[in-house]
Each structure stands twice: as structure tokens, then as C-alpha cells.
Amino acid sequence: MTEQTPPTPPFRDPQLPFAKRIDDLVERLTLAEKISFLHQFAPAVERLGIAAFRTGQEALHGVAWMGPATVFPQAVGLGATWNTDLVRRVGEAVSKETRAMRARDDRVGLNVWSPTVNLLRHPLWGRNEEGYSEDPRLTSAIATAYTRGLRADHPTYWRTAPVLKHWLAHNNETDRATSSSSVRPRVLHEYDLRAFRETVEAGAVAGVMPAYNLVNGRPNHVSPSLREHLRTWTEEELLVCSDAGAPSNLVDSEHYYDSHEEATAAALHAGVDSFTDHGTDPSKITARVRGALDRGLLTEADIDTAVRRQLSVRFRLGEFDPLHDPHTGAHDFDTPAHRALAQEAAEQAIVLLKNDGLLPLAADTRVAVVGLLADECKLDWYSGTLIHRSTPLEGLYERFGADRVEFAEGVDHVRLRTSAGAFVEVPSAGADDEVPGAEGALDPALLAGRTDLPPLTTGPAGTELALVDWGDGVLTLRAPDGRYLSVADDGRVRASANQPGGWVVQETFRLEPHENGHLLRHLGTGRHVTVATDGVKVAEGNPEIFELVFAERGEEAVRRVAEQADVVVVVAGNDPHINGRETEDRTTLRLPGHQERLLRATRAANPRTVLALVSAYPYSVRTTSLPAVLWTAHGGQAAGTALARVLAGDVSPAGRLPQTWYESDADLPGLLDYDVIGGRQTYLYFEGTPLFPFGHGLSYAAFSYGDLTTGVEGDALRVSFTVTNTGDVTADEVAQLYTRAVEPTVPRPRRELLAHRRVTLAPGERAELDFEVPLSAFEFWDVARGGWRLEPGPYDILAGASSEDVRLRTTVILDGAPGAPRPVLRRGLEAADFDEQSGAVIVDRTKVAGDAVTSEADRVAELLYRDCDLGDGVSEVRVTVAGEGAVEVSLDGGAVLAVLSPRTPTPGPYDYTTLRAGIVAEGVHDVHLRLRGPLRLAHVGFSG
Predict the structure, then answer these.
(1) Engineered SS bond to 440: which of 66, 307, 421, 544, CB 3.0-4.6 Å?
(2) Rounded to whole angstroms, what are the CA distances from 95 to 240, 335, 338, 822?
(3) Which of 243, 675, 833, 844 is catalytic?
(4) 367-370 vs 405-408, strand pairing mode
């Protein structure tokens, strides 16, 4: 007798559909095993031969946090390319490197948390660098391209499984875990949901990550929109992964639930499938799930649903079919093709904002390159470790020759004199140049500062330090060997960091005037620097009073080299870890004062000055006296080479702004004002004159547009026009197609992007561009009917080079559904379905579902509902309210007809009561409501 081979379990059978295999595997797992799968770090199930699995691998513009990898331009830079084909190829390269890195390090995950599709609504948002655009269609187009590259094109098996971040309406770091975004229905559907929806519907998305914030008073991690919207857009199972620590926030910081068991159960019911909390320790999450089961808050079926969604992703990644997975054994890493692609992406991301003929530079130009970023290749929080590096200075050396390029960084050189008359000294280090985190870290926030170097001391001569003010008084100090002053866990101050960085930056300081000198506060610890017998350190007491002794001002060095050059290139911008990053919003659009000083000094010394802004976000800069201005996001490993090639004319710039550049801070709405319609925000609604408009970007060539034709065919509008290169160099043009409702009955965008295309044209070459625009693109969310509606009438069709540079226009008449008065006798009024408001915020009607409206603190809320049909007459108005306060009702802006107020406050914010009052009216009227006090209004009804 021979021993029989055990039959292959169905979940291992590649001939069966994934759904049947998942059902089989779920049945084989014990309850404890299934609970363990709910944490980010799911353990192995050895008895079934199932490996451990973790959700989450950062891959925003290259594989991050896992050591060396190809570093592409920041996401906002990829958005500036307006090139979906390029971005798809970047996604392919990133996914191939993810697979290659995983083959040698199984800590590298295949469930990638990327891209970020939050819209760049407000340019002061600290994470502006992570998004693609302020426009939902452009964001969706770029995000779809990236996810398709990450997924790859095999019909069954995915190379990586992308998760979109961060659901939903998330554009502030200030109080991000406790603030609520008030999002009216039109903004929700027309703006915030649109970028997610179109990307998910494209079919290359494995899931989403909810954001830390609340929307309309309810945390995103328990949002009913995950079920009501997200999961209706695709037949694929979507994996919803929590953001780090967010499940605990539901109790600890948001105080939305009284217990973690309640919070965990609510998140699972809402649709969260994987809990990212407490690092690699799953014990707290699994204990909370078991507690929720014991209390009857969850059933095993609830857990099965989440486990199925996770397993769906694992099956698609080929984990259970290694012999059939075409991506197994991928080894494409840091290939010549990936290096070339990184350079191509960096070149295509550069935007020429202004050019009075100074650019491109002739080959024999003597160039001075100056500025704090002139010899930097900056990384951000979601970058990998550089394998290759190119700074603007290095790129210009390479392109023009080192003998024709001069450099001045423009830092202030200082010595710090103590109250005792000694100077701060940096002792000789004698240590290696290790880069903490270069070997890879699942959580780089946990990397500690170096303690293997001697702390600073004092002496009679001291060390000359390079001082940079990055704005808002935030300083860095750098030793002559290039190391930044930093503070480690032992509180000692050392010259130990290669760059500022870390979750809490330990390399930034602030000078505080004190008596005849300054105190030096270390911002990472909040403590002052003190001088002790055993070295310089930070401490709670006895702060040292320093005198700054300047050896040279940055303007002096800049002026010397600028005077001798034919052209000066000022490279200005931001350090992605300082003043504008995750956890920290910016406070102003202005360029930091130190860099303004350098720019003024350069311009005074040599009017032939090019300003090259390298930044993660827009600035407000005076460009009148500057003959040329460029902008690029931090461009990754090839940034310097790309910039030099554009300056030299080897490449004609064709990047386009993915967001509006405003003239000043006065043009900005409040950071927490998410009403893009009422607040007239982004290029869609902004009525002022921007510094540079959405879609703007110049070229070394010139282009003419012509032959515009349009026609409605079925459910689409077909648009065609030609673009001709009338210049004398081969160049790319980004042709943009916009629309505008001519006779809208509600506020509609001034311009709205319908489509775009980036094309390469040789001199004299003409291209005919054809677009098929679905008629649904012209719809708006009609709050009167609670759905989308195409309003009949004329629509302008605009083609051109930016949202303001319109070259062709025509008007089309579209059929649609006429508007109708609100049927308030039948449906009443949902409070959040207002047409206009002031002083109001939307809040949660209950913890599970629904919206209500209340007043902002210390304000009276005004709500307007247009065209309400009261029929042949009404005699009563009803309001559903909670809390305390009053509702005043009037029609058409007239006298108050009714005041409704609870006699006593309701017990809690979710304890609603219905109040009634007499009112006599008939016909169609605008209903005006005024809310006084902290009353929550959920619904208004009328009856005869």
C-alpha cells in the first residue's frame, strides 16, 4: 500500500474562482485566526500553510521607508506633468521595484498605500506635496494612471494592490484628528467624492484608507459613505485600511465612543477591514474585537466580511498561486530604464511660469547658481533613500562645465558666543557617514538620533555655523562638515544629522530675544539650549544667553558671484520636513524672509536673474522685475539634471500648474472652510486675479489652435480641434478643454476641466485632437431632487493652453431635465440640502447616519432653500431638532412667520424632538431659516 497524497483544498485550487476559494478558506479558519487577520500585521496560520501578511507599503513616488529605491518627483510634480502615460509608466516602475525589493526582504509589502487623491483645495495644507491637483478630474486621471501602473495589466493577478488615501475631505493638518470638515451635498458629490469615484470605477484600485478627520461631525472611520458610495462603484471587493492610530482616536482624542469595543465594532460595521494601530502589536485590537463579540456588538459574520475583503486582495496578489503569478521573481530594480524614467518625469514636471526671453540659456553662458536649495536634492517623508542624486548645482556643472558655473549658497555664517565669553564648538567627529534608516524601517518615525558622536562644547575660538531661517523663525544650524545640529534622546546637542527629518524634526531651533542676546529654543523638545560642564544640551532650566557673531551674511556671498555672471539662477523653495508637511500646515504663501533677502540682493546685483522655485506647494512671489521664473516640485533623484536641461533648452518645458497660485494670503479662504462653492475656492469658483492660473505653463515653442468642432452623439459630446507648433523647436503642448454653463440657475464653476491631452509636436507639425466627453460631465448635484441633473441650455466649450488662456470657444445647446420646485409637502426639507448658508456647519444627525445643521460658535446660522412648492396652502411647519435654541422661519426674506424652540433642552445631541407652529402660505417661495443657539436642525416639514 502506498500513502495517498491529501487532496488539494479548494482554496489552493487555481482553477476555481477566487470567491469560492475565499469561502473555503474562511470556513477553515478558526474565530481566533480570523480575528487576528483584522490587525495590520496578520500572523501566519501555519497549520494551513498561510504566510503572515501586512497591509501597507508606502509608495507615493517610489518605494518608501524600505531603504534605497528609485525616487521619482513628488506627487504634486507628477500632477504637474498632466501626462497620464508617463504617470502610468512611473507606477509600473514603482510596482516592479516593490516586487524586486520584496524578493529579498519580505518586510516589503505588496498592498501599497498610494496614491493620495485628496484634492489640493487649499495651498497652505501641509501635505500639498502628496496630492495631484485641485481639480477632481485631473486628480482622477493622474491617480487612475498611477494605479493602473501599480496594478499591472494581467487580467487576474495584480503586481501590487493600491489603496487610495485619504477618505474624505481631508486638507488640514491643524487638529486633523479632531476637526470636522463641513461638506454640503453639492461639494461632496461634485468635488470631494468625484476624484475617488472616477479612480475606483477605472478598476485598478484595491481599497481606500479613511482620513483622520471627521466629516459633518462624524469620524471618517465610521462613515456611512464607505457603504453608501464607495462600495457601490465597483463589483470588486475593496479593502478599507485604517490610518495609523485612527481606531484608537475614536475614543482617545475624538471621544466619539465611550469604549474601544464600541468604536471597533462601529468601524467594522461601517466597513473598516484592517486596523492599523499600536504598531506591530496586534494584542489591543484583537482584545477589543473579542470584547465587542462578548458584548454582542459584533457577530462572527461581521468579522468574516472583513476577512473576505482582505483575502480578496491577497488572492489577487498571487499569494496562493505562486506558480501562476506572472509577477513572481520580478527583479527590475534601479535599472537604466528606471533612471531614465526618473529623469523624464523630472523634466516633464517643470513649469515655466514666466519668460521674457532670457531662457533658454546659450551654451557659453557664465552662470551663477545661488540659494538655499541650489546644492540640495531634498527628500520628503514618503521618499525612499536615494541611490542616485543630482542637485541643481551638479546639473549645471554637468551641462555648462564647472569652469562656467559659480556657486553661493547664501547661508548666514555665525558663531554663538555664550554669556561667559566662550564660543560653541563642534568637536571632531571621526564617525562614519551612516544614514539612519538607509537599511529600511517599517516606521521611520521610530528611528532615534545618533548618540555615537560627541556633543557640542565651548571654547575660545568656536565653530562657524551655517544658519538658515526657513520662515516663521524656524532655523537650522549646520557644521562645516555638512552635519546639522540635532538633539538625540539623551538631550545632547550634536552635529549629527545629514538632513533635517524624522516624524518630530530634531534639527530645528528658534532664536528668542532675551536681554542683550538670544535664547535658543530647540523646537523638537520645546526646551532651551544650555551649556553645562559636560557639553551643550537642552534642558528645562538655566537657558544660555547667546550672542550671534556674524562672519558673513548670505547676501554678501550671493552678491559677489552674481556680479560676475551673465545670468544668475536663484534656487529657492522649501525643505519638505520644515514648515509645511504631514502634521504641520503652512501659515503663509510668502517666500521665507531669508530667501526674499537673497532674491533681492541677487536682482540688485544682476537683473538677468532666473528664479527657480523648488517646492512642495505654491508661493506668492513678486515676479514683475524677474525676467524668468520656473517652478518644480522636489524632483527626485534626477531633479538637478532635469532643471539644467530645461534651462539650457535641451528640453522645452511643458509642465502645467495643477493648482491655482494666488496673489496673496488675502485671496485664501479659511483652512477649515471646505465649501468650495460658497467660499469661491479653486480655479472653479475663484473670482479674483491669480498670480498664475490653473493649467498655466509656458514653452520655448509657440502653438496655435484651430478648427474647433462639436457635436452631440448619443450620451456624449464629441469635440475636435487642431494644435500646431508654430515655433522652431520640438516641444510638448498640453491642450486643455473646459466648459462653463452660460445660464445656470445655481452657482456653477467659472471654468471646469473636461479633458486634456499632452502632445509632442515638431516645428510646423499639426495634431488633430478628438475628445469624447460624456454628457454626465455637465451635470450638477441638484439638492432639490437629491441627485444628478443635466440642466438644459447653453454651455460654452473652451479650448486652450490654461484655464485662462482660452484660444477657441463655441457654445453648444444641451438637452436635459428642467428644474422643478422642491416638493416640500411630500418630502420636506433635509436641513443640509440648503442652497446657500452663512454661519452654519453640518454635523452628524446620529452616530450611524444622516446630517443635521447647527450654528457656528457664537454665530447665528442663516439657511436658504430656493423654490419650495407649498402647493395650495400650508397651515403648519414642523422642525426636527435636538439641543437648545430656536428656529426662525420666514419666506422670501420677509418677516419671521414662526419661531420654534424646545421648552427645555433635549437630553443629548442625538435626542430629537419635533416642534410645530402655525404658518399660512401657498405657492412657490424661498424658505429662509435662522438658527439661534447650539440647536441641531435635521428636517423641516410642512402640512396643510
Answers:
(1) 66
(2) 20, 13, 12, 50
(3) 243
(4) parallel
Q: What angle do CA 421, 424, 430 make, to 5 degrees?
A: 145
Query: How far apart, in whole angstroms, are the C-alpha atoms of residue 287 and residue 289?
Result: 5
Provide the strand spans (E) within 793-912.
793-800, 806-814, 829-830, 836-838, 840-844, 851-855, 861-869, 874-882, 886-891, 896-900
CA distances (Å), 850 to each of 193, 232, 497, 505, 832, in order? 17, 18, 50, 41, 9
Q: Which residues contact 90 (CB under 8 A, 6 or more apart)?
A: 61, 72, 78, 146, 149, 341, 345
Instruction: Give me the sheet containing 405-408, strands edge to edge.
Output: 351-355, 628-632, 609-614, 567-573, 367-370, 405-408
9 φ, ψ (degrees, to nearest 5)? -65, 150
Please report, as a single letter, which amino acid is at residue 943.
S
Instruction: State residue 687 phi and psi, 5-degree precision.
Output: -105, 0
C-alpha 240/C-alpha 231 separation (Å) is 10
pLDDT at 32 over 90: yes
Angle at 186 (CA atoms; ends 185, 192), nearest 5 degrees = 85
Determine phi and psi for 202, rounding to 5 degrees.
-70, -20
Contacts of 777 (CB under 8 A, 6+ apart): 137, 739, 754
Return the amino acid letter for 159: R
How many angstroms separate the CA atoms of 891 and 889, rounded? 7
Q: Which DSSP symbol is given to 327? A: T
Distance CA 209, CA 204 (A): 15
- Per-residue pLDDT band at 3 (split at 50, 70, 90): low
Q: 666: burial class by Cβ within 10 Å (0-12, 13-18, 19+)?
A: exposed
User: Residue 713 is inside which H or E element, if any?
Assistant: strand 703-713
Per the document, the length of the chain is: 944
Query: Side chain identity at 147, as an amino acid letter?
Result: T
Whether residue 115 is preceded by a cis peptide bond, meaning omega within 30 degrees of 0, is: yes
Give me the chain's average pLDDT, please: 96
pLDDT grade for 439, boundaries at 50, 70 and 90: low
Cα angle, residue 823 at apex, residues 819 and 824 outer, rounded to 5°:
135
The CA distance from 923 to 172, in Å, is 44
Q: Which of 598, 599, 595, 593 is nearest to 555 (CA)?
A: 598
Residue 726 has pLDDT above 80, yes or no: yes
Given a contact cutoff of 8 angstroms between Cβ atoms, the answer to whether 354 and 698 are in contact is yes
Which three three-digit cell numbers place residue 209?
A: 484608507
Task: Report which of 267, 304, 264 is spatially closest to residue 30, judged by C-alpha positions.
Answer: 304
243 is catalytic: yes
Residue found by looking up cell 523634466 in the block: 347
Contacts (Cβ under 8 Å, ≥6 apart) of 467: 411, 412, 413, 414, 475, 476, 477, 478, 548
Cis peptide before 444 (omega within 30 of 0): no
Task: Indicate whether 643 pLDDT > 80.
Answer: yes
Burial tier of 217 (Cβ tally within 10 Å: 0-12, 13-18, 19+):
buried
- Contact predicate 216/843, CB 8 Å: yes
The side-by-side arrangement of strands in the sheet containing 806-814 is: 752-761, 731-741, 793-800, 806-814
Q: What is the DSSP letter of 449?
A: P
Helix, coil or strand: residue 417: strand
